[in-house]
Amino acid sequence: MLLAVVFLVFGAVQITNHQHLLNAHRIDLQGFHFELLLTHLTELENRLQTTLHEIAQNQSQQLEQLKLLRYQCDSTLLHSDTLQPNSNYRLENISGLSNVPSLDGEWIVFQYRSNGSVDFNRTWDEYRTGFGSTRGEHWLGLAALEQILTKRSHELLIVMENFKGTTVYAHYAAFRIGTEQEKYAITTVGKYDGTAGDSLSFHNGSKFTTFDQDNDRHTLNCATVYGGGWWFKDCYSCFLNGVYITTSQGMEKGLIWYSFTGPFESLKSTKMMIRPTGAL
């Protein structure tokens, strides 16, 4: 009888030990599955992050391509050298101007002065249609300029240099002119920033005047007095289409930007440019 009890107790102990062993195996197995699951989750997270990064890169590249295509559609450069009404303009690539990256990129040039090779004392029709050569001094034309500016919002950049070799710029966040019926008046001059000082905002609302069409507010024709077409008021705070002169001290004529050189010192070169807002 005692022997039977001993066998029963021994058997119960063995069964208990076996159950503990099975439970330990189950715990180990559960831990292994948990670690395996964590590994898979980590791999999935890494793949997801990689995929999201690739998607972001592709979207950024596609956005840049769309911006480029949009700008190219608005500013197709025709390769004819001589200006024709409403058909031809030059693109200028700006880089590193005054260390302002937001100004970098391509701009449409609509006015350029550098040496006096082109006479800017022109008729209304000539200022409307354009004159000069895109390889040198030229005026794009008011009709073409108005047509471009009407398509969407544009910004304006004016780069100037004096005879001392100092280059400055005036940037305006928005710029627009009216139709010929409105005498191509400046209807919008946006916020200014730059190194030249703001001499253009004075002309906001001014109509364009030439010696044969007086639309300014002065009793005299400012274009006749100063020798060139411009958005004269009564008469100007800036005037970049004047007679090209190199010895301008004491003469209130020439290429003038009051806030940079004052009224008695003419500029060596000027370049007026536009591009669609946000084209960078």
UniProtKB/TrEMBL annotation:
Statement: the UniProt record of this protein carries the keyword Ribosomal protein: no
GO cellular component: extracellular space
Lineage: Eukaryota, Metazoa, Ecdysozoa, Arthropoda, Hexapoda
Annotated Gene3D superfamilies: Gamma Fibrinogen, chain A, domain 1 (3.90.215.10)
InterPro entries listed in its UniProt record: Fibrinogen-like_C, Fibrinogen_a/b/g_C_1, Fibrinogen_a/b/g_C_dom, Fibrinogen_C-term_domain
Transmembrane residue ranges: none
UniProt keywords, alphabetically: Signal
Signal peptide: 1-18
Domain Fibrinogen C-terminal: 64-278
Name of protein: Fibrinogen C-terminal domain-containing protein
